[in-house]
Specification:
Length: 147
């Protein structure tokens, strides 16, 4: 009986190890850098991982700000600038980073009651219809930038 149980367990583990795991669309490492003053926009940073099919991130929204735009920062010589990007392609099984100095979400009209350490729920909406809600930590504009 013990030999049979051990053999079945070994076979199950072997089959499990051979199965391919499909990538899962998800959003991780979400955080918000608040504006230096209450009237300044905040910026949200995160990583988007593509699922089994390519998708597009259409928007990021929250109940604590009035408008959100997807942006990208760039440097040309000594001049730094940023521009809205519109929807962002997310490749199947790939990763798209939104980080300081690159892509990010600008959160305009932030509720002034949001202070460093206050969690904020962001909802990520994709062309596929999927919506992913994630709680983001907040930090002040003067806090060290996360890498």
């Amino acid at each position: 009986m013990l030999k049979t149980t051990m053999a079945m367990l070994t076979a199950t583990l072997a089959l499990t190890a051979c199965q391919k795991h499909e990538p899962v669309q998800k959003v991780t490492d979400v955080w918000i850098r608040l504006g230096a003053v209450d009237t300044a926009p905040a910026a949200a940073y995160f990583n988007v991982y593509g699922g089994p099919k390519a998708d597009r991130l259409l928007q990021v929204s929250s109940e604590v700000n009035t408008k959100t735009e997807l942006h990208e920062s760039m440097t040309d010589g000594n001049m730094a600038s940023m521009k809205p990007t519109g929807p962002v392609d997310v490749p199947a099984g790939g990763k798209v980073e939104f980080k300081p100095g690159g892509r990010h979400a600008m959160l305009f009209g932030m509720n002034p009651a949001i202070k460093p350490g206050t969690p904020v729920t962001l909802t990520f909406t994709f062309a596929s219809g999927q919506e992913i809600a994630v709680d983001a930590g907040t930090q002040s504009a003067s806090a060290p930038i996360k890498k």
